[in-house]
Amino acid sequence: MDVLAPVDGSECSFRALRFATEFARRYGAGLHVIHVTDIESERAEAVLERAEAVLDEAGILDDPEFVSEFRLLSPGYADRIGEDILEVAREDGYDHVVMGHHGKGAIDRLVLGSAAETVVRAAEVPATVVP
Fold first, then answer.
1. Locate the UspA domain: which residues (predicted)?
2. Phi first, then psi: what are they for 101, rounded to 5°?
């Protein structure tokens, strides 16, 4: 089993990454971290560095059988990030997607982040959204 954990730099995405870490550990799954961004910047690299720190805290960063890869997908488009995550999950054959909910607009915050909502509605595999 392979788990895909998209991160966007928000606190909720790192809470979801911590959940994904425990989920993968419990079920002996591989964990794959991606950051889909609509900009190319140093911030994107900082997000992946923070994700590495979360995995390091869990004691699994250097376990190649557990954490298979970190990927930066760029450029994405803000209104397409959910579709980009779905495409990665589908093309690479992930078995589960774990992500935080985070909306940039007021309406998005009332329900789910638009990317999380897109993934939950259209994923062909189980998707867990962590608040």
1. 3-55, 81-131
2. -105, 135
Q: Is the dihedral of CA 55, 49, 124, 102 positive or negative?
A: positive
Structurally, the chain folds into a number of domains equal to: 1
pTM of the full predicted structure? 0.78
Which tokens go with 19?
A: 């959940």
pLDDT in tens, 69-81: 666 665 555 668 8
Note whether residue 131 is domain-resident.
Answer: no
Tokens 């509605």 correspond to what residue?
121
67 φ, ψ (degrees, to nearest 5): -100, 110
Provide the CATH number for the domain around residue 31. 3.40.50.620
